[in-house]
Structures are given as structure tokens and as C-alpha cells.
Amino acid sequence: MKLSTRVLNRTLLARQHLLERSSRTVHQMCDHLVGLQAQDSLPPFVGLWSRLADFDPTTVSDALQDRSLVRITLMRGTIHLVTPPDALRIAPHVQPELEKVPFRKGFNYGAMVGLDPEEVRGHGEAVLGDEPMSAAELRARATELYPDRNAGAVVQTWLYQLSVLQTPPRGTWKDNSRPIWSRVEPWLAAPLDPSYPLAELLVRYLRAFGPACTMDMQTWSKLLGMKRAIDELGDRVRTYTDERGRTLYDVADGELADPDMPAPVRLLGWYDNALLSHRDRARIVPDGAAPPLRAFAAQVSPVLVDGFLAGLYKVFVTAETARLRISPTRTWTKKESADVAAEAHALLGFLEAGRRASVEILDVDAGLRP
What we know:
Blueprint: H1 5-15, H2 26-32, E1 36-37, H3 43-51, H4 58-66, E2 70-73, E3 79-82, H5 84-100, H6 117-128, E4 133-134, H7 135-145, H8 151-161, E5 164-167, E6 180-183, H9 184-188, H10 198-209, H11 214-221, H12 226-232, E7 237-241, E8 247-251, E9 266-267, H13 273-276, H14 293-297, E10 301-305, E11 308-317, E12 321-328, H15 334-351, E13 356-361
Parallel strand pairs: 12-13
Antiparallel strand pairs: 1-3, 2-3, 2-5, 4-6, 5-6, 7-8, 9-10, 10-11, 11-12
Helix pairs in contact: 6-8, 7-8
């Protein structure tokens, strides 16, 4: 069966809970999405606000404090907001790939080349131990142990070699303070679980992002062995083809969405996984290529209109005002502009309650400078 791009679009939006806000809890949504991208502190809050009805941001803050949610380096080597079970069972899949990074010539201009990886790891384990430490404290110890090396590169190597997470207060509501790092196992008082099958992880990916090809799965996870893991699932998955003839896999009981279903305007957080978790992004980006990551690094975020990326926005805040500027990437109808403005005002009310809010929609491709 061949699936149109529009069927894939509406199915992705339905599984991401972007067609209508869900009554799920924060923890249930994190579990369903296999975590939310949390490289910066604010995006997971925007992602949850866009997906949940009556979302209260203090729920995330409380969960980070009581350790029922954590911020940990997982898929694509980036920070994700996940439940403890996912931290413990996904990290063993990710860790072997992370550990290869620091000793390559391209890492920090070869800063770690020539050192014994196991010796470096041993020092990292001894330094970080069972108690959280700031990056500054880690750099000080790195300088003592490796006075002829770049201390920042040594610390970064430890953070790749060891399964670590960021502890609060960073990541709580409105807190973007510097990271404090802890090893996963002492923080969660539980061992890593290397027995969790990659095939089960891919089933969950498909429930949140499918149907998808194996290269989509690899793009999402940065792991290898996708085809072998999919084959292990047997009749738990079924196949389709897309408009270009590629094989797409889906869970056997996965429902496809009606392509004519209306899709409301959604303003997502920068780095949202809905945009970054497929090799071919044509199902949500009209030309198939998401904005470059350097744009997201400047806190530029996607606007979805009729289910597809149709603009970018950024919030500018002063002591008294909050201004949300939007740069459309195509011409909008009057109704689309009105719908975008309404959602933008609602987002500002969530993000910056108490400040004087304004929304500005620029000309097409005008840019988002202040």
C-alpha cells in the first residue's frame, strides 16, 4: 500500500498529539514520545504545552526535583527529558557510540589523541563518583590530572564516556543555570539495564513517529542495526511504501490518519523531535529539509500551518514586554495569519505571563532579527 505525503503528515501529527491537545500526564507523554528534546531548558516546556491540555510547567520542575523525570544524553547524543526507566534502558544502547567520539581526530582539534581511553575513563569515574559536580569543579580536577591538555576537552570526554545526566535546578521552569552533572546510577539509585532490546525501542519510535524507513530510525537515534532489529519483530510490524517507492515500517496495529483531517496551528520549541526525527522530512517540511541547526541554536522555532512547517518564530523579552516575531516561509491566507496570531498570543501568555505581549508577523522570509 502506497502512502501519500499528506497521510504521513497527518499520521505523524496524530501520533505526536499535535492535532489536538491530549489529556495524558506529563510522564505519560514523555514515555509515549520516548522523551522530549531538551538540549536547552525551555523547548520541552513548549513541546508539552503544544501537546497537552491544561499543562502546568511546575509538574516538570517537581518531577525533576523528585527524580521521576531526568535530563540525560540519549538519542543523537543530545539531552532528552525522559522517565527513569528510559534513562536506564536506552543509555546502554547509546553509550557505546558516544564513547567513540572523543578520541577521534576531529574532536576538539585532536585534543585527546594519544591518551589511553580506559585510563581517562578511570579518572572520570573517580572524579565524578556518586555525587553531582559542576562543570567548573570537573575542569579543576581535569587540570590537575592532565595539565598539558585542554581541561574543557577532558571534561567533555568524561561526559561522553560516562552515563551522566543533568541535575536540577537546570531544566526546571525558567531555570537555565549552568549544568550540574551526576552519574545516572547513583542519581536514580538503580543500575543501567543493558537487556532492553533495540527492537522494542523501535516499536516505540514507530508508535510516536511512524510509519518510517530504517534510515528515519537511524536519523532519530544515531544507532546502527535498524534493519536487523526490525526483522526481529516479525509480524508485529507491517510495511507500506511512500510516494518515492521506499519501504516504510509501522506497528501492525498502527492507525493511519485521515489526510483531510484539519490540522491546527502549532508553535513548537526549537529542536522539537517532530521535525528532526526522520531522514526524509517531507512529511512535515515542504521541501524535505528542516532549517539548519544553527538557526535553532539561536532559539528560532518552527511554526506549523496546515500541519507543515510554514514559518519560524522567536520570542524577545525585556523587563516589561514580550514580543513574538514570526517570519512566514510562504504566503498565508488571512485566516491562517489570524490563527497563527491567536496561537502566538496564547503561547506568550504561557511563557511570559505578566509582561505586555505583542505578536508581529513579518513579510515572507524577512528574518527574525530584533
